[in-house]
## 1
Amino acid sequence: MIGAAEAWRKAARGALQDGISPDQIMWGDADAPEDLFDTFEVARGRAEAVTVPRSFIALANRVVWHSDPSRFARLYGFVWRLRDAPHLITDRGDADLATLRAMEKNVRRCQHKMKAFVRFREIGEAEANRRSFAAWFEPTHFTVEPTADFFVRRFADMDWRIYTPSVSAVFEDGKLRLEAGCDKPDLPHDGGEELWVTYFQNIFNPARLKVQAMTSEMPKKYWKNMPEAASIPQMIADAPARARAMAEAAPTLPHIRVDRVLAQAQAHQSAWDGPAAGLPAAIRNCARCELACHATQAVLGEGPKTAPLMIVGEQPGDKEDLQGRPFVGPAGQLFDEIAEEVGLDRSQAYVTNAVKHFKFKAQGRRRIHQRPNRSEIDQCRWWLDAEVRRVAPRLIVAMGATAAEALTGNGDAILKRRGTVQIADGHPPVLITLHPSYILRARDIDTRLQAAEQLRVDLRRAVDLVAAPRKLASA
Ligand code: URA
C-alpha cells in the first residue's frame, strides 16, 4: 500500500485525539490509505491533544511496512497504552513492545536485503540520453517505499524501475513515483550480467566457504532473482576440491616462525645439537625453565667465537637484563677494572654466564637478585656446554659458585676452591675464582680488599696460563 505510513499516522492521531480505544477500531490492510481503518459506531469523547514519544514514531515508521496485517492494530494498541504510561517505550519486559521491536528488525533486515540484492537489467535504447534499467524484486515486507530514497541517491544519473508484487518504484528524469505492484515482467537479456557472474565466481574463495553464514547473509529465497546465485550450488560442491588444490599449489616457503619453533623444539631435547649459527637464536628463544617468563631477555655471551679465554659468571643482573649484554652493571665494572690491572683484554675473551636469564624478586620498583637453583643451572648448562664446544677456549675462568658448579658439577663452597684449576677429560681446564659481586657485597673493607686481591691474582694467572699453554698442563 502506497503512503501507508502517513495514512496510519493521520488515522491513529485522529483516533487518539477522539479517545477511540483499540477495541473500537478495525484496522484493515487496504489498498488505499483512506480505507485503512474503520471505527465502530462509538460515542466519541472530546478531542484532546495527544503527544507520543519520538522513539515511538521512529518505531512506527518502520513497523508500518511489515507484511503482518496485524501491524496497524498492534501499533495503535501500544500507542494507546503509551498515553498513560510513556515509560513503556523503554520497557524491555513489555510483550507488545517486544513484538513491535521484532517487526521493526524484520523490516530493517528486509530493507538491507533489498539494497544488496536488487539486480538491474539494462532496458533502454542505445541512443537515449539517460540509460535505463529495470529490476524485479520480491521483498518479504513492503520495503520498496521506505527504501526508494536509497536507490534515488545511488542511481541518480539513470532511469530505473524496481517492480515488485505490491509496489513498484519508478525513477524517470530525476523524479521518483510509486506505482501499484505487478506480475514479474519479462526483462531483456543483459550482456553485463555475464560479466557480473564471472566476477562473482572469481571473488569466491573456496577455502573460506561457510555455507551457513553465506545462506544467512544471502537467504535462498532471493536467489531466483539473482543471476550469480545460479552458480552457487556448483561452487559449493567444487569448494573442497578447489581448496585442496589451492593448498597443494601454495608456496613452500617456511613460515616466518619456523626458526623459533625449531629452536624451542630443540630446547627440549637432551643436548643442543643444532647448527652453531643457530645457537644465539636458540638461546634467545629458550623456554627451558620459568626464568624466561620473567626476564626481559636472554643475555647471550659475547666475544670472539674462537677466544682462547672464556669468562663465566653467574647470571645477568638488572642492568644486563635490560641491556642484553653480560657484565655491564656494577659487577661488570669491577671486573673490567681488575681485568685491566692484570692485562686481561676483555675484548679478546668470550664473556658469558652460567644462567642466561635474570632471576629476581620484585620489591616495589626494584628487582632483587636471586641466586639460581640447581635445576635452573642444569637447564642452562645445555647452553653453556654448547658455547664451550663452539668457542673451545684454552682456559675457562669460573667466577663464583654458580659458574663453578655449572662447569665442574661441584657446588662446594667457593672460598676453599678458589685459585684451583679443575681438569676434566674432553673439557677445557677451569680456573675457579671469586665473583666480583662477592667483593661488592663484602661487609667490611678488609674482606673486600682481600677478595679483590684474590680475584686479581686469579685473573693474572689466567692471563699467564692462556699465554703459556704448556703451563696449563701442569696447572
Ligand atoms: N653478574 C654476573 O654473574 N653476570 C653478569 O653478567 C652480571 C653480573
Note: Residues 37-45 have pLDDT under 50 and may be disordered.
## 2
Amino acid sequence: MDINFIGHAAFELTDGGSSVLIDPFITGNPLARINADDLNPGVILLTHGHGDHYGDIVAIAKRTGATVVSIVEIATELEGEGVENVVGANLGGTVAFPGGSVKLVPAWHTSTTPKGTVSTPAGMIIEFAGKTIYHLGDTCLFGDLELIGRRHAIDIALVPIGGHFTMDRHDAVEAVRMIGARQVIPCHYNTFPPIKADPEAFKADVETSTASEVIVLAPGERHTT
Ligand code: NI
Ligand code: MN
C-alpha cells in the first residue's frame, strides 16, 4: 500500500487498484502539489467539517461518484449538496467499503462545515490493503487514545503536531506512546503560520522515548508499506 501525503491533513491510500482519500483540502492548500481534478478516489473519508478538511469534497465526490463516509450531520449536508453516495455514521460505528472499512472514534475538537453544519468531530480507524491506519483527525491529547491503542493494532498513525488548533508536537509524543503505532506520519503542521512545527524534532523525541518509527513526508511524497 502507498500512502500519499497530499499536505496538511489530506492523504490518499492506494493499493494499485482502489484508492481512499482522506480530508481532501486541496484547492487553497498552500502545501498541495496537485489539483483536486487529478484525484480519482473510490472512497472519501471526512474526519470533520472544518474547511481545511472538507476542502474539495463536494466537487471530487460529484465528479468521481466516490462513496463518502462522514459523521451523520455532515452526511446529510453532503446529500443536500447533491453528493450521491454518502454514508453517515457515528462514533463507534464501522462502515465497510469495497476493499476495506472505517471506524469512527472520538477526537476532542470542534466541527462546523463552511456552510454552518455543526457536528461532532471524529478520528478514523481505517482497514485497507491489510493494514490498520489511524487518522487522528484534529484532536488534542486525551486519555482515551490509550483505549483506542489497546483496542486496535495500529500499523500507521497519522498524527497532527502543529498545535494551536490541535495537539502540539510535544503532546503528540505522548499520544504516540498511548496509541503504540508501528509507524507514525506527522501532519497538520506548517500549512499556516500558527501551526509551525519541526517534524524532525518530533521524530527525534518519539524515537528516543517510544518504540514507534516516525516517517516525515514532504507534501506530495509517498510512503510504501
Ligand atoms: Ni479542525
Ligand atoms: Mn484542521
Note: Residues 48, 50, 109, 138, 165 surround nickel (II) ion (ligand 1) (CB under 6 Å).
